[in-house]
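Sorry, explain these tokens?

___
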Amino acid sequence: MERFEKLRAVGTLERYSTARHDWKFYLGPAVTASYRLPKGHSQPLKDCIYKALGDVIAQHPILSAIPVDESTQNPYFVRLPEIQLQKCVFFRERQLDSDLDADVERDIELDELLSTQHSVPYEPPNPFWQVHIMTSSAHPSQFTASFLYHHALGDGASGIAFHRTFHSALSKSFSISPADLPSTSVIPSPSTPLLPALESLHPLPVSTWYLLTILFKNKIWSARDLGLWTGSKCTAPFGQSCVRHLAFSARSTIAFKTLCRENGTTITGALQTLIAGALFAHLPEKSTKLVCTGALSARRFLPEDARITDDSMGVWILDMSETYTRDRFPQHGDSGQGGRDLLPWTEAQRSRQNIEHVLSSKGQNAGVGLLGYVNDYQQELFLSKVGKDRDSSFEVSNLGLFKPAAPAEEDEGVAIGRMVFTQSAGVTASAIQVSVITGADGCLVLGVSWQKGIVDDRLVEKAMQAVNAEMRRLVGTD
């Protein structure tokens, strides 16, 4: 690595991801999108994708950078001199006749791909990202592109930024003649500096009282609620990620959003509550408490001159948490699973208020602000937790609605549709991770992941079925 150009140091929040990747405790997120090509195109798909990725790499310098010395307390980024696309872009033919525009709840082949790839760490000197292209001979004008990446390279919103850039670049590549497409798969790295780390742009202030409270809980008194369910204890080595996704139609998504607004909450607040209700419905009665964690974008709090926008790739997020108790999900009437109210709106309203409270703090007393007080990331944040109970039950991270860079009439024939946001499971992460996105097709999709053996597969399947059934009941499509 000494022969590569040394860039800036890995930031404190980015180092959280390099430390856990070093021990294979968590491997990264992925954002997948389906694409439809213009009718009658003559350009070879691979050539157009390579051309588009070259444009994407030129626009986002983090894609040509990799973190080195992950095992130390002082990792840093280096720039690869070039990106050999054949080492990070992979093509495969679908085995099932899958129409990506069809109103289906699940793409089984995509789940299998993500389950496999979310279990594979990144290795230098290869890029710390991959793109997996799935094509279909039955539907030659369609393909699916899964963008997987190391979390130190980007947050969840960075996956959206990638696809927005890729979609625009792909549209342009299909507008030129096949003879003008480049014949090489080797892309020279740009000389553009990396965007700053979060702590370089935001003070992340921590009050003395907040710091003392955290120290007291971690060092002096950390009694655990016996009713808190968090799956099995933190177990290493990592093992296998299991991934499933559940898609709702555009009509159901609009109806659910309207229902949330009418009941004084948001989609995120309602989903957190609904997932908690679905878990309570299938967990033993002794499990009386659930802790939900989540990530919120900090981009809105960064200075304007930093030029960090929705189209930027990097890691600028804040953390949040919420607690749910079984007694807030009463059993009455014929609502919900077995008469249990899976989505009490008062709880969903409380969840929305908690999110708004975290956002109103604008980064003050956020968990990410405590990372500056950590001496040994690997030992203090990860290795010390192996064999112990997890801190949280499930995670909900919502990327919101994807908006293409150009209106449909200006995209020169390339359309982007269904999207799926997923993450690898984590040794010390929440027992279940739910990653949410609404694609350009207007369909809300939940990407669910968990570590094999840490959570019973049947529990996850039953909880997802309960979420699906309750959503359908609420919007009147059951």
The domain at 5-188 is CATH 3.30.559.10 (Chloramphenicol Acetyltransferase). The CA atoms of residues 15 and 260 lie 37 Å apart. The two ends are 57 Å apart (CA to CA). The chain has two domains: 5-188, 204-475.
